[in-house]
Design brief:
Length: 159
């Protein structure tokens, strides 16, 4: 029973981490988009109001499109017990790359990203999302499957 509760807690932490990662990637992409339009810190009151709506709204799209590749990466990270930030940053870039590859070959030109700066922005958003996933959930990857009752190795004296 306690193991089931541990699994449910870990699953909840993973979902929370995925939501945080989606929001972080969305915020990164929104700020890059506003900067490309010429918004500067002097325009903060105007831009801030739009970000309250656009970041959570765009995070839904980020979460939707990244779900399947992210599930694979999260499963691999949990099984291997990867807890380093670099793994999650690179995994976020891979998830973004898989997304770009899928939309590029889907035949639907609505979501196709062809501009080099936009491709780099999406990959950067994936890396930011991966780092924020690590901050919120990835630092404890594989903790659910470490056996607390595992035998310990004897000390140097052999006793």
């Amino acid at each position: 029973m306690t193991r089931l509760v541990g699994y449910l807690v870990r699953f909840t932490v993973i979902l929370f981490g995925y939501a945080v990662a989606s929001l972080a990637a969305s915020a990164f992409l929104n700020v890059l988009f506003l900067a490309s339009l010429g918004y500067t810190p002097e325009h903060a009151p105007t831009a801030t109001a739009s970000l309250y709506f656009s970041i959570p709204f765009f995070a839904l799209f980020v979460a939707y499109f990244a779900l399947m590749p992210a599930c694979v990466v999260i499963l691999v990270a949990e099984i291997l017990g990867r807890r380093d930030w670099l793994f999650y940053a690179l995994a976020g870039a891979v998830v973004a790359g898989v997304f770009l590859g899928l939309v590029g070959h889907s035949g639907d030109t609505t979501f196709a990203v062809t501009d080099t700066s936009a491709i780099m922005a999406v990959i950067g958003g994936g890396m930011v999302g991966g780092i924020f996933y690590w901050l919120s959930a990835g630092r404890w990857a594989g903790s659910w499957w470490k056996d607390e009752n595992a035998p310990t190795s004897p000390g140097p004296s052999g006793s």
